[in-house]
User: Fold these one by one.
Assistant:
Number 1:
Amino acid sequence: STAHRLRAMSRAHEHLRRIRAGHPDPFNDDGSSSSTSASPSSAASAASTSASPSASSRHSKISLAEWNARMEKVAVEREHLDEVVMDYFITQGYQEAAKLFAEEAQYSPEFDLDTLSARSQIRSAIQAGKITEAIELLNQLNPEILEKNEMLAFQLRQQQLIELIRAGETDTALQYAADNLAEQASTKPELLKELEETMSLLCFENPAESPLDFLLWDTQREAVADMANAAVLYAERLPENAKLTLLMSKLRTAETGLMETDCEFPPLRL
């Protein structure tokens, strides 16, 4: 859960800090944590500290049960967690989820959730494979987004090519690639490589069972939707990364620091 991950991040940093300080036991002598409360922001700031190679070489091993028990002793205020979760929904453009969460958690964000409508529609269109519709929505919102972001424009057109291949429209796909992708790809090796990989789907009778089937996965659509969402946020001068994403990144940094010491602990499976 989100709460467990945030608690884990806070405890990971506390563990790391005490190891670096040469404390004989990363926790108090009675087995309890000296940290009783943490907010996501303070935990994130602390977790960014990495371990020094010269940290104490004292071997410390903690079982999964003990580690989880100590995690549970770290208190994170619910309002802080609600803020982080709501920020994620708002940043990602999940309007319906944000409204449901606000209602169920009885949380009132400062951000006007009704303004999420455009980004939510764009994301939904891409996730449904309706790329032409998504491009039209982007242009209606702000024509400069695609004009100034050539990479996003290419990725959207390439996704449209993938959707044509998925639908078995081979001739249409070939013509579309020639008319909308070939010229841009020919000037940039990295784009040409991507286009060639996508076109290779046409070599298989059943692309969904080919070595390139990942291009047909929902995660591919999601990646393009995330790129479009980030471009809109940038155009609107809003943060492009959710706080939860940054927190998880700092958690990984803290875990990496712990792994550089002799401490053995059960890392989270993120």
Number 2:
Amino acid sequence: MLFNKSEVKASLKSDARYVSILRDPTSLLYSAYTYFRWRERFNYSSFEDFVIRTKSTKQIDPLIISFKNLMMFDFGLHPKNYEDDAIVDSKIAEIESTFDLIMIRDGEYFKQSLILLKNLMHWTVVDVAVVAINKMMSSAPKPVFSKSLTHHLLEANQADYKLYRKFLTIFKEKVKKFGAEKMKKELEELNYTTNKLANFCIAGTKPGSRNTTVYILSKAGEDNCYCRCVMVTYIP
């Protein structure tokens, strides 16, 4: 769903909380490139070839628009405005004024995001204990981001990088305000609960399609609705 503030607001109660999540644009784009098999579908020779060729096109096409500024597109920014700084800044300001929390997907920020989400929503740690599915296998080939590739990525996805940098700064401020000791304590509780959940549901792992890891459910996990629903991969 592309975010439309007025449409969403009309569908929710006045006290609704608005939460979204961002990911480093480079990591996100490479993940989409591999997940949707754009190399095979559109005959790109490499990820760098994909970035360079899609960067240069100005065509507004349903297949092309998803190749650039993925996050800003999801927030409702029209592709024709990707390079208009004033419109991009206005959209970012709208997001800041609308959303109560923008979570960050990357590294340690993700678990900190879960803690902030738990406290915002007045949930328990069980509500935010999650195990990653469709996770890339550690043995999967990793891209090499040369200076040239990095330059092309930044140039083609300026709106997404501006969005990400803005909300990463805001996120760090929220974490600092939350308190280091309190965050440490709640992360320990989250890790304990997550490990307990994984040990109950999962017996092992096996390679899946597209270089992903698939969980093998334990006997208890097979008989448990939560384990079956949450930990089964959806990649065909």
